[in-house]
Amino acid sequence: IATRVRSYFTAGEKRARISEMLAASVRVEAVVCAHSLEAQVRELRLIAAHSPPYNRRSKHPERVHWIKLTDEAYPRLSMVRKLGPQPGVCLGPFPGRRTAQAAIDAVHEAIALRQCTTRLSARRASSACALAELGRCPAPCLLRIGTEEYQETLVQHVQQAFHSDPEPVIQPLLRRLAKLAEQQRFEDASRLRDRMLAFLRAATRMQRLAGLTSIAELVAARRAKDGGWEIAIIRHGRLAAAATAPPGVHPRRTLDVIWPTAETVLLPATPNNPTPCATAEETERILDWLEKPQTRLVEASAGWASPARGAMRLRGLLAQVDQPNRRGRVLTE
Hints:
four-stranded antiparallel β-sheet; three-stranded antiparallel β-sheet; 11 helices; about 10% strand
């Protein structure tokens, strides 16, 4: 902490807001934490609780966007700020509206869901939109497709892409990317690639979060730098307790001491998002800690798993596509 505070008083610190913050500061208070994971989580919670004016990140964890299928005869994708008690098929959270819209555009490129906002009847025809005339929509407005066929050929593919296997979205986009690159339409390919990345990142993130938040309790430990063990009790993706077993003390003894006082974390009766008990950022910090090679799982109330054909298996593809994104090239294979 002393090093962090000292850095604000160096000649290299030129930020005007930091100078303003230092002028307004009266004292520095430190919160002692068991280890780095607890420190990160406490920082996130304090920032969210107090919204300090000089912190830009993590101040408003509730300001996220989701995309979901509407509940109607012919569902369509809708962007919302909050999910209701019965969210149905949804994807997120997205940090901003632009990213969410890019993911929606990616789905529309691959799956011919209707895009009009009119509430359609399953029995009565309505006026058609331009997409229907162009053949880019199955035209449920004209009753050219029934509700059952719409569900089986379109809605179920969206549900599969969001929650278990992203192939219904990714494969058509990859084929389209290859065709655009072959035609040397690189700007169009770049825009399509960015939409695909927005969707794939969101699906990977949501499935990764859901895998941990579904576990009622998970205990993990990691070797501390100065000896001993860092211990964390995680409940539904939320840090419920943290401690460090000192060198020479069996970590089980420390765990037995902190377990009775760990925070009680109850899953809502109707969970309406992948992180119902913590912010997505907190659960991601926990996941980063758990996934490090030095961390060991001690016990868990249920298996920690992801869908066998889920978006996580496409991390290699994500890195491959993202690399050209940074270099200004387009994936062609």
